[in-house]
Amino acid sequence: MSRPASGARPGIVRAAPIFAALGDETRLGLVARLCDEGPLSIVRLSAGSAVTRQAVTKHLHALAAAGLVRSKRRKHQRRRLWELDARRLQEARAYLDRISRDWDDALERLRAFVED
């Protein structure tokens, strides 16, 4: 009997929304810009892009739902600034590191089996 996918690896339920959000090219580009440039408004994020402000807003909300970005309004300003929440990226990295270790362990077991 096989286990459900979510039970196969602790943390996958928490990590899956991160990878789903980053699986979109536009959203990944927004995350990269926020990493490189720091907090930005929707106007700045959509400037020079073929993506409309409305579409950028939709993508930012998808990233926010995954916990990757958050918006904040600065005092005395109308525009919201969007910023990266690096903690969620660190969670994703930790999950990928675990997968990498599991693969290394499996390859080492295979090597030992083949050489014996």
For the residues shown, what is the average pLDDT?
A: 87
Largest sheet descriptor: 2 strands, antiparallel
Question: What class do helices, strands and sheet pairing give?
Answer: mainly alpha
Q: Give me the Rg, rounded.
A: 19 Å
Number of strands: 2
CATH C-level class: Mainly Alpha
Which strand order spans the largest sheet, edge to edge or round the barrel?
1-2
The number of domains is: 1
What would you say about this model in short?
This protein has 116 residues and is mainly alpha-helical. The chain is 66% helix and 9% strand.
Structure description:
The protein is mainly alpha-helical and 116 residues long. It has one domain: Winged helix-like DNA-binding domain superfamily/Winged helix DNA-binding domain (Arc Repressor Mutant, subunit A), CATH 1.10.10. Helix content is 66%, strand content 9%. The chain has a two-stranded antiparallel ribbon with strand order 1-2. A hairpin with a 6-residue loop joins strand 1 (69-73) and strand 2 (80-84). The mean pLDDT is 87.
Strand and helix map with partners:
Blueprint: H1 5-8, H2 12-22, H3 25-37, H4 42-46, H5 53-65, E1 69-73, E2 80-84, H6 86-115
Antiparallel strand pairs: 1-2
Labels describing this entry:
two-stranded antiparallel sheet, Arc Repressor Mutant, subunit A, mainly alpha, about 120 residues, 6 helices, about 65% helix
